Amino acid sequence: MMPCLVSYPILHLLTKLYVFAMQGSSRGDNAEIFGMGPSVAAEEGIDGDTLGSDLEGIDFEGDLSSVSEDNSSDEADEERYKELEELYGKENPVFQGIKIALDSARRRRKLMKKAILVGMYHDTYLCKQPYRVPVESGIQWVERTLRNANSCYNMFRMQPHVWEMLHQQLVGRYGLKSTKRMSSRETLGLFLYMVGPPQPVRQAENRFERSMETVSRKFHHVLSCVLKLAIDIIRPKDSTFSSVHHKVAKHRSAPAFNNAIGAIDGTHVKVIIPFSKVGQYIDRRNEKTQNVLAICDFDRRFTFVAAGIPGSAHDWTVLQEAIRKYGTNFPHPPAGKLFASKHRCMLQ
Predict the structure, then answer these.
(1) First-residue to last-residue Cα distance in the chain
(2) Chain centre distance of CA 12
(3) pLDDT by residue (tens digit) across 183-211?
(4) What's 273's DSSP letter?
(5) According to DSSP H, which parts of the chain are helical?
(6) What is the pTM of this model?
(7) Angle, nearest 10°, between helix axes 138-146 and 184-195?
């Protein structure tokens, strides 16, 4: 562990709180620590309100319900005040003594809560893990993988020359950029490493020796660039479909399918989803999947892809949901044209 650099006021405050807590526990009376006995802070000359005011400017995050329930405790104290005031009278010495004890207990509860909060803040923000020194950096691993065609295909699901073409396109036209700490080549390698085999964020974090925040941020950066690329390539070459494709014209069933402009079909992709939504994603094979609807032309180029529909949905439901969700972006066939399907031919 690297030494923690703590400013003097916080270190002094932590020391006072630690000494106070240890003195309370050394008396063997746990009730005193939580404010049920005499005020140790008063005996040691520590004013709980003054000490607590030092922490008012610190913004702590997290669920504090397990530490203390100050609001309920303050309300209970107020109810005790009213009951005792009615019983003894406001000027009665007995009431004044009990009020002092309750005020001391309230200060002690607040002090203990703030001590725990300071400890949580210290462990979260001031004590950091040492920087990792990788034996092989992420960019070195990417370059080494690209030099071997088999390794490149296994890790990135594409050949090295295809990888280079994709990198050139994303950098030149779709906004993939290098930063001072991470090059565009390493960023693309990280993205393809995660979506290819595929690999979760923690595996990528260990492989590239980057924080999970960096891995997530770089992944979404490349994803946004790929989505821009998809808009340009996942579309028909001829939106009017004015001519008959030569593969259809020369087919043995010609001219029966001369009006066909492509093929439409779907597939299932396994997913990991919250338990509350499992039911609607169970397909006929009892697996958790989502439906993916795809349309391609006769050159085997995708012209439309729709994903995210639960795996339990029927094919017709998937088609109707894709038409409803994407509206005008769905490639409706022109009048008289159709998509070929293994189930039926679908007209506009």
Answers:
(1) 67
(2) 37
(3) 999 999 999 999 988 889 999 999 999 98
(4) -
(5) 8-26, 30-33, 40-44, 48-53, 70-88, 93-121, 138-146, 149-156, 160-173, 184-195, 201-208, 212-233, 246-249, 315-326
(6) 0.58
(7) 70
